[in-house]
Design a protein that fits this description.
mainly alpha; Alpha-lytic protease prodomain-like; 7 helices
Length: about 220
C-alpha cells in the first residue's frame, strides 16, 4: 500500500507540471495573439493615413508598430512549443526587430531631409498619431500583465517596448502641429528623434532579455 502511494504521488505531481506548462503556453499565446491583433490593426490604419499624408514621422511610427506586431510571431511559437530556450531566443528576435525598425526609420528620415516633400491631410496625421498611442498603450498592458504573471522576460521586454512606443506615437501628433504652423522640416526631424528613441528602446529591451537569461 505504501509502495503504491509512493508511486502515485510522483505520477500525479508529473501531471501537475504538464498541466501548468500547458496553461502557461495557452496564456502566453493569448497575450501575444491579442497584442498582434491590436498592433496589426493600428499599423494598417496608420499605413492608410501615410499613403494620404506622406509624413516621415508617421512612417517611422508605422514601421515600428508593424515590426512590434511581428514580434508576436516568434513569441507565439515559443509559447506553443512550451520551451524556455525558444522563449529566450524569441526575446532576442524582438530586440533585433526593434533595432531593424530603427535603421529603416532613420534612413527614411534622412532621405526626407535631403529631399523634402509637402505634408497633406494634417488632421488625419494627428489622428493616426493618437491611434498609435492608444494601440500601443493597450498592447503594453496586455504584454506586461501576461509577462509578470508568466515570469517571461521576453513578454515584459515587449510590454516595455510597446509602452515606450505609445509616447513615440505622440511625436506624430507633434509633427502634425508643427506642419500646421508651417514648420515642415519638423516632420523629418521628429522622425530622426523617434529613431533615437527606438534605438534606446532596443538597448533597454536587450538588457531585459539578457537579465532573463541570467535569472532563468
Amino acid at each position: 500500500m505504501t509502495a503504491v502511494s509512493r508511486h502515485a504521488h510522483p505520477h500525479s505531481h508529473g501531471h501537475g507540471l504538464v498541466d501548468a506548462s500547458i496553461k502557461r503556453s495557452r496564456a502566453g499565446l493569448r497575450a501575444v495573439s491579442l497584442a498582434l491583433l491590436i498592433l496589426g490593426l493600428t499599423a494598417i490604419a496608420q499605413a492608410l493615413v501615410f499613403a494620404a499624408t506622406g509624413s516621415v514621422a508617421l512612417l517611422a511610427d508605422l514601421i515600428h508598430n508593424a515590426g512590434d506586431a511581428a514580434t508576436a510571431i516568434p513569441l507565439g511559437f515559443a509559447f506553443a512549443l512550451r520551451s524556455v530556450r525558444a522563449e529566450r531566443l524569441a526575446g532576442g528576435a524582438v530586440v533585433l526587430a526593434i533595432f531593424a525598425s530603427a535603421c529603416v526609420a532613420g534612413y527614411e528620415a534622412v532621405d526626407r531631409l535631403i529631399d523634402p516633400r509637402e505634408i497633406e491631410h494634417v488632421g488625419a496625421l494627428a489622428a493616426a498619431g493618437a491611434l498609435g498611442f492608444v494601440g500601443n498603450w493597450i498592447a503594453a498592458i496586455v504584454r506586461t500583465r501576461a509577462g509578470r504573471g508568466l515570469n517571461s522576460s521576453a513578454l515584459i521586454a515587449d510590454g516595455d517596448h510597446a509602452r515606450a512606443d505609445a509616447y513615440v506615437s505622440l511625436a506624430v501628433v507633434a509633427s502634425a502641429a508643427a506642419v500646421t504652423i508651417g514648420v515642415d522640416i519638423a516632420d523629418p526631424l521628429i522622425g530622426l528623434a523617434i529613431t533615437l528613441v527606438i534605438l534606446r528602446i532596443s538597448w533597454q529591451s536587450w538588457r531585459t532579455v539578457r537579465g532573463g537569461h541570467r535569472h532563468a
